[in-house]
Design goal:
The protein is mainly α. It is built from 16 helices and no strands. The chain has one domain: Growth Hormone, Chain: A, CATH 1.20.1250. It is 81% helix and 0% strand.
């Protein structure tokens, strides 16, 4: 009995270590997604393009994410979590090398598309992996910690990337050095993941399987709650698009700063709200998370709109922090709903469908905002979109609240 207990303890210790290694790897991959955010001003100076081209770069990334979710989001259900994540890390490391080697506009578009493709494969796979590793580490425990860490790695990565990039860009070769840093980080991630055990059954991995793209179809018996979760995820990521697309323009046009460090620090501070809210309310009931999330999003965008009128940077940061906090709670509730619906053998594929809705929400508004900024200053765009968000997002959240009753 003692030997069995010691073996169980060793297995749980290994599962715990693997859980945190996977979380750190997820964080690094997701942070690579936002590395270019404080660097776009440099790209504009070097290549001579304007805000709308930046919008096209965002759109290329978003298209890559959605296609990655369709092509790769479900694959780990059949070939294994670790194998697919290692492939994603290799792809992202290759993109980092490409960014470091060249900065032509067409090259930027291609690499952002490929980066998005990798993120589309990573997000549902890593989320499912963390839930399964958590169950191995703490069998019988509620999956709250696993879901919270997965969501924090997802949104926390988005927050960390701009700060790392802006600090690294202070060194020589500012359009290359941030990516050299990420080449090293991603190589480290690849080494770490090789130590993580596979959680998909060996029988499943060994079974014959014919590849087909992910079908964005949900079983009829869970369709209603899934639709509520997907609408809420779309709405919350549309708010993230609203923040990320306008922050740089707000700093340039209203505050009058082009500092990469200031831009990176502010984007990181604002997006950190999505991490803080999830940690603070991780054990709150799902309905409570959604209610608080709706209030934070609505109140936050109103504060941001007021900052646009007055030029108050502190108010903009506070409003953005509150808004991102609401987004974090809504997204957490969406993932909790869907992960609870999905059978283990279809978990990554079902989560991929949810992430597809979320990243469409992240992409389409950026294109619209970019088009508006070609004709209007940032203040009226900020005010108009804040009004739209304040009306539309609570409606999307209300759908998921009804499904949570």
């Amino acid at each position: 009995m003692a030997a069995r207990t010691d073996t169980d303890t060793d297995e749980r210790t290994h599962a715990a270590r693997s859980f945190w290694l996977t979380a750190a790897s997820f964080l690094v991959v997701m942070s690579f997604m936002t590395v270019p955010t404080p660097l776009y001003g440099l790209y504009e100076e070097r290549n001579g393009f304007g805000p709308f081209t930046v919008t096209l770069v965002f759109a290329a990334f978003g298209a890559g994410v959605v296609l990655g979710l369709v092509l790769l989001g479900h694959v780990s259900d059949h070939v294994g979590r670790r194998r697919l994540l290692l492939g994603v890390v290799v792809l992202e490391a290759a993109c980092a090398v490409g960014f470091a080697a060249g900065s032509a506009t067409w090259w930027l578009l291609v690499l952002r598309f490929l980066t998005g493709l990798g993120v589309g494969g990573c997000a549902p796979t890593a989320t499912a992996y963390l839930l399964e590793l958590h169950a191995c580490w703490r069998p019988g425990a509620a999956p709250v910690l696993g879901r919270t860490v997965a969501n924090v790695a997802n949104l926390g990565g988005l927050a960390i990337g701009p700060l790392v990039a802006s600090l690294a860009s202070l060194l020589p070769r500012p359009l290359s050095t941030p990516y050299v840093v990420y080449v090293m980080l991603l190589v480290g991630v690849g080494v770490a993941l090789r130590r993580v055990p596979e959680t998909v059954s060996g029988d499943v991995v060994a079974a014959p399987w014919r590849y087909r793209p992910q079908r964005l179809v949900i079983d009829r018996e869970v369709r209603a709650p899934f639709v509520g979760a997907a609408v809420a995820a779309f709405s919350s990521f549309a708010v993230l698009a609203f923040i990320t697309a306008l922050t740089g323009q707000f700093l340039v046009q209203v505050v009058g700063t082009t500092s990469r460090v200031v831009t990176g620090a502010i984007v990181t501070t604002v997006l950190a709200g999505g991490v803080v809210s999830q940690v603070v309310l991780s054990r709150a009931a799902r309905r409570r998370q959604l209610q608080v999330g709706a209030a934070l999003v609505t109140g936050g965008v109103v504060v941001m709109a007021g900052a646009g009128q007055t030029g108050a940077l502190a108010a903009y940061v506070v409003g953005g922090f509150l808004t991102a906090g609401g987004v974090g709670l809504v997204f957490s509730a969406s993932v909790a709903t869907v992960s609870g619906l999905a059978a283990p053998e279809r978990r990554a594929g079902t989560l991929a469908t949810l992430f597809a809705a979320a990243y469409v929400g992240l992409t389409v508004p950026v294109v619209v905002i970019g088009a508006l900024l070609t004709a209007l200053d940032v203040t009226p765009v900020l005010t108009g979109l804040a009004a739209l968000v304040a009306l539309a997002v609570p409606a999307g959240i209300a759908m998921l609240v009804r499904q949570s009753d």
